Amino acid sequence: MTEEHPARVAAKGSMRAAENKNKEEWLALYADDAVVEDPVGPGPFDPEGKGQRGKEAISAFWDNAIAPNTVKFDIRDSFACANEVANVGTILLTFPNGSTARCEGVFIYKVNSEGKITSLRAFWEVDRLMKTVKMP
Questions:
Q1: Any domain includes 136
Q2: What are 12-44's pLDDT values in tens digits?
Q3: Cβ contact 38:61 at 8 Å
Q4: Which residues, 6 or more positions from 67, have their beta carbon under 8 angstroms from its beta carbon?
Q5: What pTM value is reported for the model?
Q6: Would you call 81 helix, strand, or coil by DSSP?
Q7: How far apart are CA 121 and CA 100, in angstroms?
């Protein structure tokens, strides 16, 4: 097969848009009823652990979690099955104050038949990320 897997294509697009700070491009990749769980379960941007549901909530997640920071993805491995892809890697973060951190995790994207992301589930641990913070 010479064609790249649709979920992998969508995941790469999502990561590229985040790295380029292109909110419109990023949001356009998501289905209207998509859910973003980043991280899965309760976390800094989702204390109840229910996920960001729908474009309005996903847009707010961008504004709070992605927009203030610089992000760079380093994906070491990727496994595509059915309509999903699981990427294993690191998100390198630079915060507005110049501090940095490394977010090690597994990032799972699920797409619908149109190739739109219906689910992003990011498995990472806040405590592990906090141990990597370096101040400027």
A1: no
A2: 999 999 999 999 999 999 999 999 999 999 999
A3: yes
A4: 21, 23
A5: 0.95
A6: strand
A7: 23
